[in-house]
Q: What sequence folds into this?
């Protein structure tokens, strides 16, 4: 049994923390949302009054926060995790954030005598609930080895991607591809509809043909073919369009700094920015199909 602090109990962090509790670990949790904390407390976790308090006495701390500024504010400063945790604490940041912030916070953690990895995930809320996430981990091999038993509880595939920040590099590349493929899948279903081909028939054919991709087979943007996809639940997230836009912007920042040509990534970011401009970016990212339908 490990004493674990867990901060950020949202769509992803909530079920991830629950899996650690179910595996018999002792969790102390914190989130700005009382409702999110109450759910974990009902499952057997202890509530902390602040993020720093959740780190006190913890052997490992997991964070699952929205973006880089949230990670900086939770980790740094006199009330932050690095100041409040004991030396030797292992930090696992599973948030999807920009590479420079990940490298900066990991550097500061190591200076303070802690081990830390960036360990963003793929697999969505379904994967978080089922404990089948894919973890992409950056950091020292020793820190990776220490984190792996905990990541194995929350995930099915755990990859060491190399040095600090490389988990975020893998994640940003993966999500740029995901954003592009979701738009492409949506376009294909809309075109089929206009040409008189029903969604289930296109799904049956394309899911076994060369257009097959995760956006279609696991997260289909039209209701029907994949019962668990948010399209069947009025595009309730899931993974919000706002989060996808964040990731696409991270990819564009990274592409600019690396002088990489990513024209489809740029187009995907522009389309999700239009969802944001419509004021409806709290819908699931597969709701981009509504923009293409002219419904946003
Ligand atoms: P979310 O908005 O549902 O959850 C974030 C949680 O962090 C919220 O409960 C919020 O109250 C809490 N929080 C924010 N600031 C805080 C602070 N200062 N102290 C304590 N708690 C704070 O987001 P999510 O969907 O769970 O995503 C979390 C991260 O995981 C993001 O970086 C996202 O890009 C990434 N991600 C999400 C998915 C998905 O399908 N939702 C998939 C893969 C990766």
A:
């Amino acid at each position: 049994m490990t004493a674990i602090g867990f901060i950020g109990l949202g769509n992803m962090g909530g079920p991830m923390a629950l899996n650690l509790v179910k595996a018999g670990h002792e969790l102390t949790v914190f989130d700005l949302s009382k409702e999110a904390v109450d759910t974990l407390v009902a499952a057997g976790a202890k509530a902390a009054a602040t993020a720093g308090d959740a780190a006190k006495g913890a052997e490992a701390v997991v964070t699952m926060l929205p973006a880089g500024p949230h990670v900086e504010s939770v980790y740094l400063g006199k009330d932050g995790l690095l100041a409040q945790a004991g030396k030797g604490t292992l930090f696992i940041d599973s948030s999807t954030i920009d590479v420079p912030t990940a490298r900066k916070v990991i550097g500061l953690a190591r200076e303070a005598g802690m081990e830390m990895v960036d360990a963003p995930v793929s697999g969505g809320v379904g994967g978080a609930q089922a404990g089948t996430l894919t973890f992409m981990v950056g950091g020292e091999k020793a820190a990776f080895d220490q984190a792996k038993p905990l990541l194995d509880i929350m995930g099915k595939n755990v990859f060491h991607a190399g040095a600090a920040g490389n988990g975020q590099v893998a994640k940003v590349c993966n999500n740029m591809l995901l954003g592009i493929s979701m738009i492409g899948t949506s376009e294909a279903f809309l075109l089929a509809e206009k040409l008189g081909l029903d969604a289930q028939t296109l799904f049956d054919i394309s899911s076994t043909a060369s257009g097959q991709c995760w956006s279609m087979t696991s997260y289909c943007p039209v209701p029907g073919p994949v019962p668990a996809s948010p399209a069947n639940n009025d595009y309730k997230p899931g993974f919000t369009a706002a989060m996808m836009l964040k990731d696409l912007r991270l990819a564009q920042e990274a592409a600019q700094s690396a002088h990489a040509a990513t024209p489809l990534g740029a187009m995907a970011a522009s389309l999700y920015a239009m969802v944001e401009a419509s004021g409806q970016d709290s819908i699931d990212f597969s709701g981009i199909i509504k923009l293409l339908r002219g419904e946003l």
About this structure: Residues 73 and 80 are 7 Å apart (CA to CA). Residues 3-163 form a domain with the Rossmann fold fold (CATH 3.40.50.720). The chain has a mean pLDDT of 97. The pocket of nicotinamide-adenine-dinucleotide is lined by residues 7-13, 30-33, 36, 51, 64-66, 70, 73-74, 95-96, 121-122, 124-125, 238-239, 243 (CB under 6 Å).
